[in-house]
Amino acid sequence: MPELAIVADDLSGAAEAAAAHLLHTSRISVGLSAAAVRGRDGDRVVAIDTDSRRCPPAEAAVRVRAALEQCKGIPVLKKVDSLLRGNLAAEVRALYELSGVPPVVATALPSAGRTVVDGVLRVGGVPLHESGLWHAEGLRVPRNLSEALAPVPTVLVPLATVRDGEALAKALASAAADLRVAVCDAETDADLDLIHHHAAAGERSVLVGSGGLAAAAARALAADDPVVRRHSVVDNVLVVVGTAAPSATTQLEHLESTADVVVRLTPDDLLRATLTPQPAPSHETSPTAVSGSGGGVLDVAARVRGAQCAVVCIDGRGGVRPELAERLAVALAAVVGRAARERDALVLTGGETARGVLDLLGVDRLVPVAERHGAVVSRAGGRVVVTRPGSFGGPMSLADLVTSLSTAPIPEEPTDDH
């Protein structure tokens, strides 16, 4: 039986939380459905993507319940977005009701400058509601964790209590006795280690956090015996950027200088593509950047065929349209589907885009094998799949990531013996 089950609301988050354990074990699976990890008794860590970030709250709760039904008897970590996006309250309430245990919540991600003090999420020291980072959500930003979790009953565990082990244990026990969700402050990985240690010490462990808490769980995992694994590099890569995060624009500028083909699709291009039959495959390849409207630009497979490094992205220079986000992610996945089938490696930025592309390819399980430049490198049969949250990475990270795939050998998927 697995030692930890991770339930995440998007694919990049599921992969991120699972891959945090790679330093200690290679026996990890990420399922694109609950059924995909059923019977994975040889894995020490399993993660399930419920693909529920943009669902209506009631549907998100149903999906979380279905995932949790597959995890009975296994300690659970509910992976949530470090910027509190998605159906946080509905999913935590579903977790609480099904488990019968008030979860312990710690959403800080210190490695990305995301801390929680006095129950307020701060990004680079700026409160989330003042940061502008929800610009693509089109929703009111919660001012603190308790507001984000409402109407789930909560109690704050302040930083001073977190850093006093005895006081922390008492605070968590008191919250559980009062049937309240403990919302824990944290500024450092050491804070998260303390929270994980005391929360996981109970007979029934139910944790809620970002990749920071997943990393704390990984640090507490005993390491496997080392094994020898084969490695290989990839011959060609398709990069699909479906995120509206501001950092993506700068990353694309650096990647463009080394890519063979860059195809930029406007929102109007993509929405029309879902209503218009795609052109037949062509063997033409254009080693140039392509933008603008017209039928030819949407024949992505023809545009990128033969290119060692090809990039397809949403042209966000006309502004962000939050109300179209889900439709655009689906449309982008549909447009690149045929091109993705012809590639050895896929780099998929943005959880919804990654999920859409892999669904079209019929991929239902990923095996994380490495972490590079803020991304998770996984194997899916004979294909390499790289996923990364849209808000992650410095200006050169995407270009460096793509270069590494063809220059630094990638571990093969572990055999059934390991």
Can you walk me through this structure?
- The protein is an alpha/beta fold and 418 residues long.
- The longest helix is centred in the last third of the chain and has 17 residues, at 325-341.
- The protein has 14 helices and 21 strands.
- The two termini are 15 Å apart.
- The chain has 2 domains: 4-219, 3-Layer(aba) Sandwich (Rossmann fold); 231-411, Four-carbon acid sugar kinase, nucleotide binding domain (Molybdenum Cofactor Biosythetic Enzyme, Chain A, 3-Layer(aba) Sandwich), CATH 3.40.980.20.
List the helices and strands and how they pair.
Layout: E1 4-8, H1 11-19, E2 28-31, E3 45-49, H2 57-69, E4 76-79, H3 88-99, E5 104-106, E6 114-117, E7 120-123, E8 126-127, H4 145-149, E9 154-157, H5 159-162, H6 165-177, E10 181-184, H7 189-200, E11 206-209, H8 211-219, E12 231-232, E13 237-241, H9 246-256, E14 261-265, H10 267-273, E15 289-290, H11 300-304, E16 309-314, H12 325-341, E17 345-349, H13 351-361, E18 365-372, E19 375-380, E20 383-388, H14 397-407, E21 410-411
Parallel strand pairs: 1-3, 1-4, 2-3, 4-11, 5-10, 5-11, 9-10, 13-16, 13-17, 14-15, 14-16, 17-20
Antiparallel strand pairs: 2-18, 6-7, 7-8, 12-21, 18-19, 19-20
